[in-house]
Design a protein that fits this description.
The protein has 190 residues and is α/β, with parallel strands linked by helices. The chain has 2 domains: 85 residues, Vaccinia Virus protein VP39 (Rossmann fold); 77 residues, Putative methyltransferase TM0872, insert domain (DNA polymerase, domain 1), CATH 1.10.150.170. The chain contains 9 helices and 4 strands; from the N terminus they run αβαβαβαβααααα. It has a 4-stranded parallel beta sheet, with helices on one face. Strand 2, helix 3 and strand 3 form a beta-alpha-beta unit. Helix 7 packs across helix 8. The protein is elongated and about 60 Å long. It starts with 15 loop residues before the first helix and ends with a helix.
């Protein structure tokens, strides 16, 4: 658990009060925040728990670990929440009273040029939530076939022109390696 003055400053979560009210928190309950991020939701949940309550928070982003809360009722798990069941078993938690999932990319990720999520800043085309994973967005754009890129753009980006974009990516990389956010922007501009 980290609470050493190196905390990152994130935004206040949108709909914080509504999200917490929706959990109908029992003061002695066990809760899980599967998208810890800056810890805004978790801090509010902890505020409503008594000494018997427990909060387990997940986040795969190493930056989120800097926001971990120094509280005996709190457990931070630096992992993707798809492993929730395994970690709950490991932590000897049989049931929970509520789960909070604030899905999507945080404004923190868009505001950090090093993360490569935004076209507002030139930076490496990374786009990984967990920078410990093997492939960055640049790796994928440089290595995958047009068919595989089309499938990704169609399925995950829900883009109607997925094949056109995939073809443009493949054509661009024939002349220049894709490495920066501005490279992707050049591909996408008409």
């Amino acid at each position: 658990m980290v609470d050493n003055g190196r905390q990152m400053v994130y935004h206040t979560p949108a709909l914080l009060d509504e999200s917490i009210e929706g959990l109908s928190i029992c003061p002695s309950g066990v809760y899980v925040d599967v998208t810890f991020g800056g810890g805004g939701h978790s801090r509010e949940i902890l505020r409503r728990l008594n000494d018997d309550g427990r909060l387990i928070a997940f986040d795969q982003d190493e930056d989120a670990a800097l926001n971990a809360i120094d509280d005996p009722r709190f457990t931070f798990v630096r992992s993707n929440f798809r492993f929730l069941k395994n970690f709950l078993r490991y932590l000897e938690v049989d049931e929970v009273d509520g789960v909070l999932a604030d899905l999507g990319v945080s404004s923190h990720h868009f505001d950090d040029a090093e993360r490569g999520f935004s076209f507002r800043f030139e930076g490496d085309l990374d786009m990984r939530m967990n920078r410990g994973t093997q492939k960055s967005a640049a790796d994928i754009l440089n290595e995958y076939t047009v068919e595989r890129l089309r499938d990704i753009f169609s399925k995950y980006g829900e883009l109607k022109n997925a094949h056109k974009i995939a073809s443009s990516v493949v054509a661009y990389r024939q002349t220049k390696k894709i490495a920066l956010t501005n490279d992707l922007l050049a591909i996408l501009e008409p």
